[in-house]
Design brief:
The chain is α+β, with helices and mostly antiparallel strands. 45% of the residues lie in helices and 13% in strands.
């Protein structure tokens, strides 16, 4: 799958979100990036030559925002193109995993940790 088809797939997943979740993405930038930078992986305690990410949420989760929250840059969800197409080579596998990855990162926006998100199937 080429990059533009991949980006269209990410948009499709976002467009298919139920409204009660989609409305919370108002100040969230969802971007497709080639792959995570080695410095980013190291900052997360990962080893760049062995580990990678499929997606990453960066921001202040909704459940941690207080009354003074505002005038901030948008939160960011990065979806990483190269690791996903490398690990999930068939269109069906890739489609399922992109959906799972996008929803997983949105779970972090809602304040869920990895364990809770995995328990929900993402």
């Amino acid at each position: 799958m080429n990059r533009s088809e991949f980006e269209a797939l990410v948009r499709e997943v976002l467009d298919d979100l139920p409204e009660e979740f989609a409305r919370h993405l108002e100040n969230v930038a969802v971007v497709v990036e080639d792959e995570p930078e080695p410095d980013l992986l190291r900052s997360l305690g990962m080893r760049p030559r062995r580990d990678t990410l499929l997606g990453l949420y960066q921001g202040v989760p909704l459940n941690q925002r207080g009354g003074n929250y505002g005038n901030v840059l948008p939160d960011k969800i990065s979806i990483y193109y190269r690791p996903l197409v490398h690990l999930y080579p068939t269109p069906d596998q890739l489609r399922r995993q992109v959906r799972k990855t996008v929803i997983h990162e949105i779970g972090h926006l809602f304040g869920l940790d990895d364990r809770e998100i995995r328990r929900l199937g993402y």
